[in-house]
Queue: 3 jobs
Job 1
Amino acid sequence: WASYRYGLTCRLVVSFTGVVAMFGLFTIFLVHFTLFASLRRQVIERARLTAINVGDNAAGYLFKNNAKGLRELLLKHVNQPEVAYIIVQNRAGKIFAHSLDILPEEVQNTTALGDIRAESQRSFRLGDGVVYEVTVPVMDGKIGAVRLGLWRDEITSEINRDVMPLVKVLLLVVGGGVLMAVYLAWRINRPILRLVRAAHRISSGDLDAPALGTDDKSEVGELSRALERMRSSIKAALVRLGGES
């Protein structure tokens, strides 16, 4: 084991598999990070479009001061597990209607909408989880705004369900690449090992076994032919010495 541990085969295997594994794992990390970020942006953009749609429908309820009807409308849009709540504020920044049974203190925002006419996003802790919140003004903030909250853990779980099959396939590809690297390292070093064994036989006095691989056109074949010439020369010299004696 010690000879293989410090031998060329081990070094080739470690080098090849190390390069393949590092490149593969880096690729998996890059794909996962890029795809995860892209899908999260898509989810938030989808929430933004939902908030805009709710805002378009909520305008009439705000004009009519119909909080009960607006709440029924909001409840129809919170049937997705990632949606934590939908809140509609009036122009003064007061909460006009919401989809929650009990309104937590963390989401009670009384900021006047006259100062936040543009769309905005934020994240904060709500209970035991974290919420991504998208705020969209209604009619440019002239009559109110819609705030839609998304559970971060639900978004992460949803994205992982989409991403993990691809990651598993990439892991299988990397595993196959590692096995191929081991095979190539063994295949490249096999002729060298044969020459090492031939050199050991020659050094122990076995001059009858010819070297293998002399027909190879590569550098390994050149080394094999040189070893064969050395074996033949040593054998001829010993024959001459025996005849002279």
Job 2
Amino acid sequence: MLVDRAVGVGTEFIVYLPAHRVPREAKPPAPPAEPPAAVGHTVLVVDDESAVRDVTMRAIARAGYRVIGASSGADALSLLAREPDSADILLLTDIMMPVMNGHELAERVG
């Protein structure tokens, strides 16, 4: 900033401001990648906590998988017995569950 003054004339202030730069046009965001085709693949989610099970099931379903859920090891075994191709189902289970834990469930399924 510069200041110039003269008696009887007045005072002049010169202020230098940084140049304003016009932002470049932003490129539009890339479209989200399509989830891999998961047609025909099923995931069995087993968790005794319904909130955890529900969130997990929604996330897996958004990825394109068929999802079934069970609240216990016994429920999971019952669901698997009704599935025609239960050997092709991925088991995603909580480990710490009452009565039958995740390890025991996996051994019974496996």
Job 3
Amino acid sequence: MDLEAEDQVEEVHQDDGNSMRPEKARTWVEIDTEALKHNFNMLSRGLAPHVLKMSVVKSNAYGHGMVSCARVFRDAGTDFFAVDSFEEALELREGGLAQPILVLGYTPVHYFNQASLLGISLTISNRESLNDASILSLFLKVHIKIDTGLHRQGFQETDRDFVFSILKKSPHLMIEGVYTHLAAAETPRYKKHTQAQITLFSSWVSDFKSRGYTPLAHVSASAASMLYKHMHFDMVRFGIALYGLWPSLETKARARGVRLIPALSWKAVVSEVKNVPRGEPVGYDLTQKTKRNSLLAVVPVGYWHGYPRNLSSVGEVLIKGKKAKVFGRVSMDMMVVDVTGNKGVRQGSEVVLIGGVGKKSVSAYDVATKADTINYEIVTRINPFIPRVYS
């Protein structure tokens, strides 16, 4: 699987007093802000002085809490923020973030006036949006996105003449940036495809400059920013690596000297403990039976909270320094784990869903591997209503 394990989780001492637990919380997420700063500084250290740093805080900062993380990256020296939606950009502005913000995703035209007033930069990636921006005659900061081979957003080569013809008659549009997104920069076997994307992108950048535009050119996300200095252009977009998670196995293997520290731990409490005799089915659909007289603990976390249902009977958590396997189905709001032989487990005992206890850990990569997905999905799907605690 194209994933990577995080670095060794720093030692965390078990404390059933739950010193980081918000009052009355059954489940919560802990964010290590020093780890966030470390990762930002680690990613920044290899950049040339002229290269700007963009911190990607979309999707609730990959599950870590958008506004709080953005404040950490602001204080660490970021030059730009990137979000997915205009609503996220508004949330940053309302949270006191004055730095430049780029909306990476599609922005409906009814937000254009507000974007102009707030100085929020928009991605323009198709003919319809470019026409709308041209007709409205608003002063807008825009980043033109080029499709160089990922084939999601972006103008294609056949759109080149159209783009420049519209821009020529739209002096109210400030071409702040031009960018693309690489399909497989983290994977060595697709090096030719990556280089072809860069070559095509470079031709667009040259075309902009030959026509008198001076846009910020950017292409590198986390993997390319660590692996390919020649792809840094004018700005790099730090994404999942900011949070201490690796884009792929290959990236970590090749990014020599880079040490990332996972910033997120997800915890809960045991809500109930019970003895269940051998041979008893547990949970919905009776999918698993006890093979011995068992001690089972109920954890008030389920797929509503973002814990994948396909971890039923295979997921693992940590309780009192020992791993406990998910027993039976993960339900909407709770799950059962087997704590047989783990003395002292009681109501209120701390459960680590992601993170470490002593020298043992359950990483986002571990969870993703068992759920047959990627670490990106695991952390971004943690319910935003779950309280985040920053230290």
